[in-house]
């Protein structure tokens, strides 16, 4: 027969698994929600072949500012090489970012993009982005990452500046979840 401490440890283990599972699923759930509703400044994705030279507006410049953030659970430094740049609507532009793992372990991160003002996000598309896949950095590794994007030439005239913002979060793998639950359960049983 199990004692109360064992039952409590099992319940806490299940709660921990549920919490980690929920945290792991937040990024895909957020992506689906934003895609379905079109809110929260989520940007679009297009193939480079869909960009037409005929759509470039040679008489207009739009300022794109870059904002970089890292969730405290991720031991990384992250910055844009340039704070802002001017682009012609309809033209493919690119920006360079640098990320560095400051820990002594390999870490997987996932970047979540957004664009402000929210209306501008409807006219901002990426052809290539480090945010499309999880990034793995070895201990102390520093990496350059690129984003190629197009500001649609149909962007309303009243919008002359937009901000592309990225926040990196730690991406949990199944092994991390199992390892963390075992560690928490062991700590509670020994403590």
How are the secondary structure elements laid out?
Elements lengths: L3 H34 L6 E2 L16 E9 L5 E5 L3 E4 L4 E10 L5 E10 L7 E6 L5 E3 L4 E10 L9 E10 L3 H17 L1
Helix pairs in contact: 1-2
Q: Count of DSSP helices?
A: 2
Instruction: Sketch the major β-sheet.
Output: 5 strands, mixed
How large a portion of the residues is in β-strands, by DSSP E? 35-45%
Structural class estimated from helices and strands: alpha+beta
What is the helix fraction of residues, given as a range? 25-40%
Q: How many beta-strand elements?
A: 10
By CATH, the superfamily of the largest domain comes out as Ctag/Cox11
Count of all domains: 2
- Unreliable stretches covering 5 or more consecutive residues: 36-42, 45-53, 176-191
Question: What topology, given as strand order, has the largest sheet?
Answer: 1-7-9-5-3
SSE sequence, one letter per element: HEEEEEEEEEEH
CATH topology (level 3) name of the largest domain: Ctag/Cox11 (Pfam 04442)
Rounded to an integer in angstroms, the radius of gyration calculated over CA atoms is 21 Å
Mean pLDDT across all amino acids: 79
Please tell me what the overall shape is.
Answer: elongated
Do you know the CATH architecture of the largest domain? Sandwich
Report the CATH C-level class of the largest domain.
Mainly Beta
- Termini gap: 21 Å
């Amino acid at each position: 027969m199990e004692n109360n401490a064992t039952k409590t440890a099992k319940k806490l283990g299940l709660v921990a698994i549920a919490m980690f599972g929920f945290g792991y699923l937040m990024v895909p759930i957020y992506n689906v929600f934003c895609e379905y509703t079109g809110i929260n400044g989520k940007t679009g994705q297009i193939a480079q072949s869909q960009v037409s030279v005929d759509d470039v507006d040679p008489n207009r410049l739009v300022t794109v500012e870059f904002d970089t953030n890292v969730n405290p659970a991720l031991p990384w430094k992250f910055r844009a090489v340039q704070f802002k740049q001017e682009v012609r609507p309809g033209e493919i532009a690119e920006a360079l970012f640098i990320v560095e793992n400051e820990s002594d372990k390999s870490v997987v991160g996932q970047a979540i993009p957004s664009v402000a003002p929210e209306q501008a996000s409807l006219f901002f598309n990426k052809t290539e982005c480090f945010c499309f896949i999880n990034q793995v950095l070895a201990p102390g590794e520093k990496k350059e990452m690129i984003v190629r994007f197009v500001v649609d030439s149909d962007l309303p005239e009243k919008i002359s500046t937009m901000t592309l913002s990225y926040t990196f979060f730690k991406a949990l793998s199944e092994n991390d979840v199992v390892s963390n639950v075992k560690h928490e359960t062991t700590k509670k049983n020994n403590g």
